Amino acid sequence: MSKCEQDMPTEQKVKFYQTGTxxxxxxxxxxxxRTVQATQERSNSIDSGHRACQGCGQALGARYAxxxxxxxxxNHIIAANATGCLEVFTTPYPETAWSIPWIHSxxxxxxAVVSGIAARLKAEGDTQTRVVAQGGDGGTTDIGLGxxxxxxxxxxxxxxxxxxxxxxxxxxxxxxxxxxxxxRTATTMPVGEHPGSSFNTGKFLPSIAMAHEIPYVATASVxxxxxxxxxxxxxxxxxxxxYIHINVPCPLGWGSEPALTIKLARMGVECGLVPLxxxxxxxxxxxxxxxxxxxxxxxxxxxxxxxxxxxPANSDELEAIRALAQxxxxxxxxx
Amino acid sequence: xxxxxxxxxxxxxxxxxxxxxxxxxxxxTPQTHIVEHLSTLVKSGQLQNCAYENVDSEFSSMSFCIGAxxxxxxxxxxxxxQGLLYMMEAVYNASGLALPIVxxxxxxxxxxxxxxxxxxxDAMSAxxxxxxxxxxxxxxxxxxxxxxAFKLAEALSLPVMVNMDGFILTHAITRVDMPDxxxxxxxxxxxxxxxxxxxAAPLSIGAMVGPDAFTEVRYLAHHKQKExxxxxxxxxxxxxxxxxxxxxxxxxxxxxEEAELVIVTMGSVVGTLQELVAELRAQGQSVGILSLRSFxxxxxxxxxxxxxxxxxxxxxxxxxxxxxxxxLASEVHMAVQSHKLQIHSVIGGxxxxxxxxxxxxxxxxxxxxxxxxxxxxxxxxxATVEAELxxxxxxxxxxxxxxxxxxxxxxxxASKTH
Lengths: 335, 418
Ligand SMILES: Cc1ncc(C[n+]2csc(CCOP(=O)(O)OP(=O)(O)O)c2C)c(N)n1
Ligand code: SF4
Ligand SMILES: [Mg+2]
Prior knowledge:
The complex is a heterodimer.
Chain A: H1 3-7, H2 57-72, E1 77-81, H3 85-90, E2 102-104, H4 110-124, E3 130-136, H5 137-142, H6 145-154, E4 158-164, H7 205-211, E5 216-221, H8 225-236, E6 242-247, H9 251-254, H10 261-270, E7 277-280, E8 283-287, H11 296-300, H12 315-331
Parallel strand pairs in A: 1-2, 1-3, 3-4, 4-6, 5-6
Antiparallel strand pairs in A: 5-7, 7-8
Helix pairs in contact in A: 2-8, 4-6
Chain B: E1 2-6, H1 7-17, E2 22-25, H2 32-43, E3 51-54, H3 58-70, E4 76-79, H4 81-86, H5 88-96, E5 102-107, H6 121-125, E6 132-135, H7 139-156, E7 160-165, E8 173-177, H8 181-187, E9 204-205, H9 211-243, E10 251-254, E11 261-265, H10 269-282, E12 287-292, E13 294-296, H11 300-306, E14 312-317, H12 327-335, E15 342-347, H13 357-368, E16 375-377, H14 382-394, H15 401-408
Parallel strand pairs in B: 2-3, 4-5, 5-7, 6-7, 11-12, 11-14, 14-15, 15-16
Antiparallel strand pairs in B: 1-8, 6-13, 10-12
Bound molecules: thiamine diphosphate (TPP), iron/sulfur cluster and magnesium ion.
């Protein structure tokens, strides 16, 4: 028995974490309902020791998503990664945080690489091994969109996961087409007539994915990891193309406290800016209701990227953000 | 068995004999017929255990190959020209990741101006991409070299590009001796990947490499290409034993060893040159041809050896580096720098311009009588070029040069009234 095991208490004290929220602590649940992370059988697809920033939402989201996919497939996952934070912080040569077969090729081609892997599995008649592609919002909504749309079109048997932190973080926080309106980035500074990223631009990829009528589309957030795992496992129950868009706070790019990552993720959902829903073959099938809607300002004020928006001179920007939250609520049936 | 078929169909049949498992494709002239025919072979069940996919772009196509090859599949695709440029980032990536993908390039020029006809600009654009680049002179060689390409790629774990001249070969219907499956199986064993994405033995492929190891990783790629020099020769011999034909190898000499004037070139123009040179030799002229069948790795030593007795070289190529000159010419120059040789760089056949026997003959005569310049653009219409230069000098807003030139030449579709 190792030292570590000897020291392990036989009984763990129940810790009520996330107090003040409506989330149930993992350890209060029956075992079958607990997250994969709470089980000893978790695969640790992404192992510790990687170089993500403190409080990185993407590291958390990827870990939960991949381990859930592993559980759903009896540990038969091959993963691909677009260039971006996740790729860089997990594989500083010669180290790798990946304990599953993993490939990184380029920034814009993860969907096509993974389709190629799926094609090989198909040619071999291997129905057990499944593939997951991962990209940041830049790698997904911008440079990789062509490959992704092609993959959707062919309905290749792939789960594609986008970790949306609202910008090109790996290259120093530039605007992507998923950067929210008003947000400050290195290429949309809070200067000039319309400070921050412009409004009425950008793309909401889950809707684009739905327009391809692929079997399953879902959005998720790292504050509700049960929901995230459930969606990943559900995605693995389909064949064909599946898409999950995970909102992942980024302390560095958002100018937020690392300790607030989970809270921010939750607030994004509760204010209406991050809609959580599922869709099958292009039709909305479920949405997570907002129980107590919080004002968007509460969410914005914890992020320096929006600090200018809260100044009285920029009330138009704030109004536009509020309007987006209301639109999401109507559009995705969030109340 | 002998067939009278187009180069593209012959290549598609040869690919099928190699039992590829994954073929993504994207149409572009002049390679399209190859992938079209492969699609039929897969769909009709003649080529089994093969996933064929129409993808959304060449960039996807090569990326698809990368995934498939990394997952352990024998993988093939084809492209040309703009398609190669569109996939270029993935082309470099495939070789950087050391994936033994085989790709046909139906050689075609690169725009603008857009032009679908043959030259070698596309192949040259990938000359530093880390792929093995082989050239073929005929459709028989196209068939044979593709079969060798898989074996070579897999032996080295490096991607191989087989260059065949667009239209001149891809669309030409000629007699081709198609190998049978048994022969191909004997020559080409099943693919054993050097690295493979496998859930039973997980590994990470494509990690970030910093300054501490990048030089070594890149040097290794160079080293492997050098290893290829001997493997290509060995495999050509092995191929000859099984199939009874000389095809492939690094270089092919047509009386180059004893000739005073040697024309160094690649691809289908060797056919035209062979005919001409045979006639000239019959008339007692000391002229030979050195055909490069492998461009990457560059067979510098083999070239050097075969040019021991040469006094003059004409490096004839269907592409050039704008602002520098002949690409092949400068590489040959480097290879033979220890010989005291006069080297002429002749650029011809650009964008499909016919390379006539007459023009080639004149070129050779000029070389013999000392009037061939160091750099020549074969059959260049100098008056047209002068006229356009003058126009640009006279008028700051003279408009697009390509259209002006077409109008000068009286090409109807370019006329202003249309
Ligand atoms: C073709 C190409 N263009 C640009 C880059 C530079 N680049 C690398 S990662 C990256 C940003 C990634 O942003 P995103 O996909 O959102 O992932 P994040 O880092 O935010 O997780 C960029 C621009 C590249 N590697 N390749
Ligand atoms: S920059 Fe953001 S996404 Fe990247 S590692 Fe840091 S916190 Fe994570
Ligand atoms: Mg991002």
